[in-house]
Amino acid sequence: MKGQFDLVATQIRVLVQSIRSRLVQMASSQPEAYTTVLMQGSGTFCVESVIGSAIPRGGKLLVLANGAYGKRMAQMAEVLGIATVVLDAGETNPVEVVVLRAKLQEDVAITHVAVVHVETTTGMVNPIAEVAQVAKQFGKTVIVDAMSSFGGVPIDVAALDIDYLISSANKCIQGVPGFGFIVARTQLLQSCKGNARSLSLDLYDQWATMEEGEGKWRFTSPTHTVRAFDQALQELEEEGGVPSRYERYTRNQKTLVAGMERLGFRTLLPQQLQSPIITSFLYPESPVFSFESFYARMKSEGFVIYPGKITAAPTFRIGNIGDVHLADIERLLQGVEVQLFWETK
Ligand SMILES: *Cc1c(COP(=O)(O)O)cnc(C)c1O
User: Fold this and answer.
1) Which candidate in 120, 141, 269, 288 could, as Cys together with 148 as Cys, close a disulfide (CB 3.0–4.6 Å)?
2) Do residues 127 and 115 touch, judged by C-beta distance below 8 A?
């Protein structure tokens, strides 16, 4: 038994090292300058491990927010007792680089800038290249929550000068939930020892254990999720990598919007702010439209859509990531058309 256990533990470690190296290759055109840490928990745990470990005592975080996930980063910093300033652009505007620049000029205590790449609240793409460029002009460390975009939208952390990029197993990588990962600039992460405000979410310690133990997790490893993630990475590679997946998601999203517009729906965001990940639609004008019954009927057809998450307008959301193809989008549109007929009759 003991021998068998050791064998399994070794296999997982080998797999973890392979996953870590593939993630760095995927994220960075300069893989030698970056490292990856896998972290147990959902995506939020990973973001919290970065916020709590990257910012030293006496540091100050600036959060660019335009939705629930940006606000959540600010909330974390508050809970952890980290000085924070939030620049909230509102739910339907991209984060504002001009405002960022002005704030960095005015408040020299700021050390770190955090931004969400695709704000899943609405489906908005934020201008992370411009944000990183301005933050770097002022010598700040850049943290990007790329939870719902990494693996589905091309991102090069080296070219963009991003220091910490966070994502998870179960979004565009199409694995199962259970852990997330952080791609970090190695030199910066090395300086984070002792920063953590949490024992289990200590990003530095998690990294040091994985490095020294060659793929060892500090605490119980999510073994099944690791195996599923390895399979998901293989499938991503077989699909042709991130550029091919990006094309498929984009095609899905464009077909979805064209079809929904044909049925009389309007999107919340203009196309130039829209990601290929998830789309917010305004409720139709019809006074008898009920989202609850629309949702229930779509679900009975096999399609789970999302309620809206903003206060600015009544919306619902349709995601198109995962193993979703054009035929699925066409079936969904047929389903919507049938439901709409009943809803508005
Ligand atoms: C999904 C998501 C998260 C993390 O959510 P969890 O429910 O903790 O996995 C964080 N940020 C963004 C932008 C997300 O889309």
Assistant:
1) 120
2) no
Q: How crowded is residue 299: how many other Cβ atoms within 10 Å of its Cβ?
A: 11
Kindly state whether residues 213 and 232 are assigned to the same domain.
yes
CA of 119 to the centre of ligand 1 (A): 9
**Alpha carbons 46 and 321: distance in angstroms, whole number:** 21
Please report, for the domain that includes residue 334, its CATH number: 3.90.1150.10
Question: Which residue has tokens 């943290």?
Answer: 143
216 and 300 share a domain? no
In the three-class reduction of DSSP (H, G, I as helix; E, B as strand; rest coil), residue 95 is classed as coil
Q: What residues form DSSP beta bridges with 319?
A: 278
* Cα gap 145→192, rounded to integer Å: 19
Binning pLDDT at 50, 70 and 90, where does residue 344 land? low
Q: For atom 3 of ligand 1, which residue has the closest CA?
A: 43
Q: How far apart are CA 145 and CA 69, in angstroms?
A: 8
What is the length of the chain? 345
Tell whether ligand 1 has an atom less than 6 A from the beta carbon of residue 189: no
Confidence grade of residue 93 (pLDDT, cut at 50, 70, 90): very high
For ligand 1, pick from 121, 128, 147 the residue to mutate: most ligand atoms within 8 Å of CB. 147
Is the domain of 247 the same as that of 234? no
186 lines ligand 1 (CB under 6 A): no
- What range does the domain containing 321 cover? 241-344
Reduced to 3 states (helix: H, G, I; strand: E, B; else coil), residue 202 is coil
- Strands of 156-297, DSSP E: 164-168, 179-185, 278-282
Type of residue found at 214:
E
Q: Which is it for the CA torsion 40, 172, 291, 89, positive or negative?
A: positive
Structure tokens at 321: 């990531």
Nearest alpha carbon to residue 148 among 21, 43, 273, 20: 43
Q: Residue 345 has what pLDDT?
A: 58
CA of 44 to the centre of ligand 1 (A): 6
Give residue 310's pLDDT band: very low, low, confident or very high (50, 70, 90).
confident
